[in-house]
Write a structure and sequence with these properties.
The chain is α/β, with parallel strands linked by helices. The chain is built from four helices and five strands; from the N terminus they run E-H-E-H-E-H-E-H-E.
Length: 116
């Protein structure tokens, strides 16, 4: 599975994930900060990447909109607030574990939550 980390997640996490041979990019690394959530989701989808975010409510709403509009969607993985955003190693470790358990990836329009 390929991941796209929303701008609310530190690019340090994508660096750690790549060291674990996980295909991950960050909105920060590609210069897509201060864009709309819709644009973030569209970019992730255009590259066949699951969007990873802390922003649960907006991306659940956008997923429903994309579904209703028959727009492409590559899934959303939500990091719960029980995993503090400044705990880069912990978040990365949790994503690595998730990736190992879900080698098939998230289905289109799928929303899943990391366990913290």
């Amino acid at each position: 599975m390929k991941y796209y980390l929303d701008e609310d997640i530190s690019p340090k996490i994508s660096e750690i994930l790549r060291r674990h041979h996980i295909d991950a990019i960050s909105a920060h690394e590609i210069g897509l900060i201060q864009t709309t959530d819709r644009e973030q989701l569209e970019r992730a989808t255009s590259e066949g990447r699951c969007l990873v975010t802390l922003n649960r409510n907006d991306f659940i709403r956008l997923t429903v909109q994309f579904f209703n509009e028959h727009r492409p969607h590559s899934g959303v993985l939500i990091i719960p607030h029980t995993l503090p955003g400044d705990k880069f190693a912990l978040i990365s470790k949790t994503i690595v574990k998730y990736d190992l358990k879900h080698s098939e990836g998230i289905k289109s329009y799928g929303i899943d939550f990391l366990s913290g």
